[in-house]
Amino acid sequence: MHWSVYCVNLVHGQIDILDPSPWTDQQQKEIHGGIAHRIRKRLNDIFQSFTGGRFIDFSHWGLPYVPVPKVVVSNDCEFFTMLFLEHYDGENRKLNINIDPVR
What we know:
hydrolase; Ubiquitin-like protease family profile domain-containing protein; cysteine-type peptidase activity; Papain-like_cys_pep_sf; 4 strands
């Protein structure tokens, strides 16, 4: 199973992708390419519906990959994504902790 975090970054007007898997750039594009656009659309539709259109429309925002530590052991993705959720600073586009993937 593959785990990643998609963060609606209101400060920078983009959807940040935090992916701890050690993919090549090509693999990352193949894996996130199709689904990232669907996630963005569906999430935007939900926000628009839930807020009656009062939430900013982010259906066309960019989807940049944020540099994050990559897993060494393949089943650690879940733990990394939980750390990303807890410690991601979207304003500065970085983590507020140091993660040593080997430890």
